[in-house]
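Let us practice reading a record.
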Amino acid sequence: MAVVAIMVGNAVSDVSFPAWIGPAGGTVKFRVLAGIALLLLRVEGVRPGEIGLSRRLLGPALLAGFGLWAALNVVAAGLAVALGNQWGFGLILEMPARWPDVPFTLFTSLAFDFLVVALVEEFVFRGYLQTKVIALLGDDSRARIGLGILAASVVFGALHTPAMIVQGASPSGIVGTAAFLGLSGLGVGILYELTHNVYFVALLHAVGNTWPLVADVWTWSGTAVVAALVAVLVVYFGVTFAYRSWALDTDLTPVVERSEASQPARSDGVDPSGV
């Protein structure tokens, strides 16, 4: 049911409509997806907090997300200076917007990407689907956990293709986009597995959707864009491991640790069985 809803929603979300229909329709679509995932969790007797949607995780996620954004901008500015490319704070205001004609364009785009798109997609695909697949496979080995992350990532990439089919994209474009999104989902899936904080990976997802940076690194060419990609990966994983290291030493942000009995054991003593 959730898969069908995602496919239908993605297929119609990018069809041309008046400006206000975009954010309104997108919000409705993602609210439906979130509602389906919440219903499935309720049926299975699992609380949202057990998969990383606890309110106590939001503050640390926002702090880590701000640190990530700041680090990315420092790195982007440093690379731009070293490589002789343009940079400046004004470029953040020039970032592409989803709906250029809606009021408060930049704010609307950023808010929609985090509060609607990224948060719901990470809840559905990482919080629910990835956790469910890993539990079904058995989480008593890294290989099975990795297979669960891979499976959820493939689904994530595949379910973004109906919109491209509706728009008449070429087969190579559809496959390429699905592969790129699958790889992106794989990376985010690993970051979720390291932190089990949906808010945190949603922020990373939203930054990756919008790239509010002082340098437009993805328009660079040759070794410059390769250096930017490597730097972004280092920052993403560096901030994640820093967050994880801190989280393991405090009871404010419990991190799920896999147990030999194939049931997640939590540092706060909560038994998240039932997923």
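A brief commentary: Residues 60-266 form one domain.
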